[in-house]
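hiii, so i know i said id send this last week but things got crazy w the move. better late than never?? heres the sequnce for the chain we talked about at the cafe, plus the structure i predicted for it. fair warning i was half asleep when i ran it
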Amino acid sequence: MAPILLIHGYSAESPQTDHDSIKKIYGSLADDLKVSYPVVDVDLSRYVSLNDSVSIYDIARALDRVLNQEYPELLRSGFNPIIHSTGALVIRNWIKLFSPKPSPIRNLIHLAGANFGSGWAIIGEGQVARWGRYVFEHGAQRGAKVLEALELGSSQTLDVHLHFIEHGNRMLEDYLVQEYILVGTQADPEWFTIPVRYAKEDGSDGTVRVSGSNLNFNYLRIVPAADTYTMRWTDIQSAVSNANSKQSFSEFYKIAQSSQPFFDRPEIPFAIPYQCAHTGDKHGIVSGSETKAQVQRLIKTALDVPERSTTQWSAVVDLFHKETETTYDLARKTPGGGLFNFLTDQRNQYDAHAQVIFRLRDQDGQSIPIDNADIFFVSEQQLPGTTPIQKLIEDVVVSDVSRNVITFYLRTNRFDKDKNDWVYLLNSVQEFALEITAIEPLTSNRDPSVTYVPLRMPLSTESLVRLIQPHRTTVIDVQLVRIPGPDLYRIVRA
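okay and structure toks below
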């Protein structure tokens, strides 16, 4: 088997570079791996993430330099990275920027990879976090540029993941990298005293959402129909004035062929270990004493898959599904309530959630700030036995670094005490229409020089269930048509 390379997450860096100090980052994981694989080298990464000048791209380039100059044997013989948290963005950026096809990476194992970011990133960018670093960590900086990549809805991070679903750049088919995803969905009980929702959010491990770690994501691209570009100005004005009516504007837009639901690609093995948090000596996914047996069993299952063995890799999907089922069987038996969450049931931490990320741009690729746009989920009068989609939305975040991106966090399953099981919620959602409108705030409403053609897309319950799944993210790229008014340019015969 090829050597193993451990890559840590944000702020886990050691101020010292001696071997023992770096080893503390990973707990006993390296030694445990050496017991299971005594003939395999285990290398420990150490990189800087708290310097405000350093970006994820810089870290990926630094990794490439070290591989080429100091560890060229890893590039020749291949290696198996095991990453934690932000390490996912480091290694995926390295593959995108520097890896040949096929890649020297064999099996890539994500331990709570922050693939679609973390709500903590915005907290970490704030002034309070800056003061905390200064006071408690001897003046350490925040790692502002790394936090930008970690924001929910960071456009640069979305583009990294979209790179790997393009034909010719697919992780399994083209790079021949076999990925595996492990992420917990139970925050450390000690974190429930922290007055930040992301420390104790249901459907997350206290730092990373399960849906934000899972790389089995959906991608939907909505683009203008060909005739939309040549619409008459009077028709555009009519569309804008009727944007909130029942009139459908779906003829103005279409689903692009580049859209890809997760089932159009090979499913990546994905498992949720029991009582597993992002960090901690007891429940942490890397060094937790109580989670070690299950986590390391899953790691060993992944490492034991032969290189370039698509058939055996696909078989691990079922094995990981069974591990997740075991986790939920154990969670059913967990007593409800607790010291810090006595108003809720601890089993709600296992409620499945989904992320839906909208990114708005015009036909020229220019960003449309969310501040200048409205996204509506418009339902008719509520019918008996149905639930408005709005009632499932628990968090909404507009990215600070990518102002044209907004992330919705929805509860898709809820634990029912009477049934002692999780109830699926999306099949009871009332049918609605997705409406997106935008304005150019610098133009006059009475006589606009520029306007956007609004989007209205009806969504049935069936189409909603296809678009959004538990524990997954759906990325929706929307291209709104920006049209200049008739008075913006005229030609007058002399």
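btw The longest strand covers residues 353-362. thought thatd interest u
miss u guys!!
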